[in-house]
Write a structure and sequence with these properties.
115 residues, alpha/beta, 3 strands, 15% strand
């Protein structure tokens, strides 16, 4: 099951309170306007253990993905700039950049498969 929470984390909590898809495995995408904290991710995982993936989607990244041909290097550069702006100038760890690129690839494969 796939949930796309375009209204953010509060929408996910509302769905959980309503008992939406109560026994399903959920692939969750959350539209976020700022960086999602590990605490927010952990809170969601504690609230419902059926989340397979929790992916924050940033409007800025969606615009970039729609406007440019996909290349790992350009997405890496854009992610690094975005992360730096969100964290006040910090640079992401190489492992975080790699995870981001893997999530993009995974999402692309799911979209190609029509999920």
């Amino acid at each position: 099951m796939s949930w796309k929470a375009k209204e953010g984390v509060q929408q996910v909590h509302q769905w959980l309170e309503e008992g939406r898809d109560a026994s399903a495995w959920i692939d969750l995408e959350i539209t976020m306007t700022e960086a999602m904290s590990m605490e927010q991710i952990q809170t969601l995982r504690k609230a419902y253990d059926g989340f397979i993936h929790i992916r924050p989607i940033y409007p800025e990244m969606e615009v970039i993905r729609a406007a440019e041909p996909r290349s790992a290097l350009s997405m890496e550069e854009h992610f690094t700039r975005f992360y730096s702006r969100q964290t006040g100038g910090a640079q992401p760890e190489p492992e975080l950049v790699q995870l981001f690129l893997e999530l993009l690839q995974e999402n692309d494969l799911a979209e190609a498969a029509g999920e």
